[in-house]
Design goal:
Elements lengths: L3 H13 L29 H4 L6 E2 L7 H7 L4 E9 L9 E9 L9 E6 L7 H11 L4 H5 E6 L16 H9 L7 H22 L1 H5 L3 H15 L4 E6 L1 H12 L4 E7 L8 H24 L13 H9 L7 E2 L5 E2 L1 H12 L5 H12 L4 H11 L10 H12 L6 H14 L41 E5 L7 H10 L3 E5 L12 H13 L8 E2 L4
Parallel strand pairs: 4-5, 4-6, 6-7, 7-10, 10-11, 11-12
Antiparallel strand pairs: 1-2, 2-3, 3-5, 8-9
């Protein structure tokens, strides 16, 4: 899950200081001249593909003070794209997709649109694009592409929005003890999972939930491509956004100009194995953090990195029985301490916050870790939540096979504890199920493990980071091979790397986006990028 907070730190630092690739008919550097797709418009969808976007202020799309700051920048404009909620019934209820744009600063050299997605699933592409607009300002990409973001169906400023829990309900679930493996503890945890599923059905509608998956989002992307006037799609996707990219390629192979896939999900991996690999990745990132922390005076984890996991367990496990009461009346639970730590492990720029949070925890205080956990859950100071976590749940419940067998859930939990011992509560694994086991929408799974087969696809560029805590490096290697694309290896411990102040990465990505130039064989960018 690509974290917006990680990019935000880069944005603030930055603020302070033709539509074809070789082998296609149009030469790089030319402007899109026709929105007619290489693949025919699906029957019954003509009115959606031919719609004209009406651009205006983005401020009505802002939901936070940060959004209002970024959305008010010069040249940042927004519109709504209408799409059917159920593509099998295009005459039925529709959704309105929030879309943003910053025009290419050099119209004479404009190539087309660059569509971006931050992943999640559940994160806002409008928010991402507002930040990338500042990061890339003046660069060749900004000169030659319209930078376009979108909030996938059910997410952010798109309507209708996926909602499952109220703010107080989410606070209560975060504070609840879900580590108890006893029958009574499992029953309580299952009750919370069912509460989420029932809340999604009541507040979002089963029809939206049934059509919220990747399969439907990529159909929206193709409608958006046509509405933008691009004959083919140029796309940059992070984390889960890589799944959107390769799934789009599977559904609309001739409509692809270029794909940059950064922080790849392995399409051939079983979802349980994906979870275990992510746990292993977070353990690796925690150990890298602990090594760095040990080199600094006063590290709460001590001066011996080999003891860091045990020290962290000793610091956090007491929160199960005795959460820390905060000045605002909330409590730092065991779950919040874990999620706050995970949030900081997504980006090395957040390691100082984690050091401070652990120092506070050793002193019986929890404000910084709670703040990191609030970032993870996207909780505003007024107690409201963005729909990001609700959408994350809804999309994964439609995309992936559901685990309904308690024995399978127990095995998954045991293996996760082994893969990420710093997150092990010490109470034993639980057989509790997640919300997907109780999901109300009975639509067929839209994803599932498989190797993409896309003959003739314009070769993508896959960026993979050696110590990525959320999407293992090997997943990027495998995806590049499956799609016959080029691979760019980034050395480091952060999640994703493109346009995050790594010049080596950005230079290779830029050449690919502009000219279709693949990454050189064995391309590798160091830690400083």
């Amino acid at each position: 899950m690509w974290r917006l907070a990680a990019l935000l730190a880069v944005v603030l630092a930055a603020a302070a200081c033709a539509d074809a690739v070789p082998g296609t008919a149009t030469a790089p550097g030319t402007t899109s001249s026709s929105a007619a797709p290489a693949d025919a418009v699906p029957p019954g969808l003509e009115r959606f593909y031919s719609q004209q976007l009406r651009w205006g202020s983005c401020l009505p799309f802002a939901t936070t003070d940060e959004d209002r700051l970024y959305y008010d920048q010069p040249g940042f404009e927004c519109a709504r794209l209408e799409v059917p909620i159920d593509y099998a019934n295009p005459g039925g209820r529709t959704a309105q997709i929030a879309v943003s744009r910053v025009r290419a600063s050099d119209p004479d050299q404009r190539i087309g649109s660059l569509l971006v997605n931050p992943g999640g699933p559940g994160a806002s592409g409008v928010s991402l694009s507002s930040q990338l607009a500042l990061i890339t300002k003046g660069d060749e990409v900004a000169r030659r592409f319209d930078l376009v973001g979108f909030d996938p169906r059910g997410i952010g400023a798109s309507t209708p929005t996926i909602r499952c829990l109220t703010g107080p309900e989410q606070d209560a679930q975060r504070a609840a003890d879900i580590t108890d493996p006893s029958p009574a503890g499992v029953a309580r945890a299952n009750g919370l999972a069912r509460q989420t599923a029932d809340g999604c059905a009541a507040r979002s509608g089963v029809d939206l939930l049934a059509n919220a998956g990747t399969r439907d989002v990529v159909k929206d992307m193709d409608v958006l491509r046509a509405a933008l006037g691009d004959r083919q799609l140029t796309y940059l996707g992070f984390s889960y956004g890589t799944r959107l990219g390769y799934t789009y390629a599977e559904q609309f192979p001739r409509n692809v100009r270029a794909l940059v896939l950064d922080g790849a999900l392995d399409p051939n991996q079983d979802p349980t194995e994906e979870v275990i690999d992510q746990g292993r990745g977070f353990q690796g990132a925690f150990e890298a953090f602990a090594k760095d922390c040990a080199s600094r005076p006063g590290c709460a984890l001590g001066s011996d990195p080999t003891q860091a996991t045990a020290r962290f367990q000793a610091m956090t496990r007491p929160l199960i029985e005795a959460p820390i009461r905060l000045p605002d009346g909330r409590v730092l639970s065991y779950n919040d301490a874990q999620q706050g730590t995970i949030q900081a492990l997504y980006a090395t720029s957040l390691w100082p916050d984690l050091r401070q949070g652990l120092t506070e925890l050793a002193q019986g205080r929890g404000q910084t870790l709670m703040g990191l956990a609030d970032q993870y859950y996207d909780r505003a100071p007024d107690g409201s939540y963005s729909p990001q976590q609700d959408a994350f749940t809804a999309i994964r419940c439609v995309d992936d096979p559901r685990v309904t067998d308690p024995a399978q859930a127990l095995d998954r939990a045991q293996r996760y504890n082994e893969a990420a011992p710093f997150l092990d509560s010490g109470r034993g694994a639980s057989s509790a199920l997640d919300s997907c086991a109780f999901w109300p929408a009975q639509a067929p799974v839209t994803g599932g493990p498989h190797t993409p087969q896309v003959p003739g696809l314009a070769p993508p560029l896959v960026v993979s980071t050696t110590g990525d805590p959320a999407t293992p490096y090997q997943a990027g290697v495998d995806l590049a091979k499956a799609l016959n694309g080029s691979l760019l290896t980034k050395v480091g411990d952060q999640h994703t790397a493109t346009f995050q102040n790594f010049p080596c990465v950005d230079a290779i990505v830029t050449r690919y986006l502009v000219d279709g130039t693949p990454a050189p064989p064995n391309a590798r960018c160091g830690e400083t990028g």
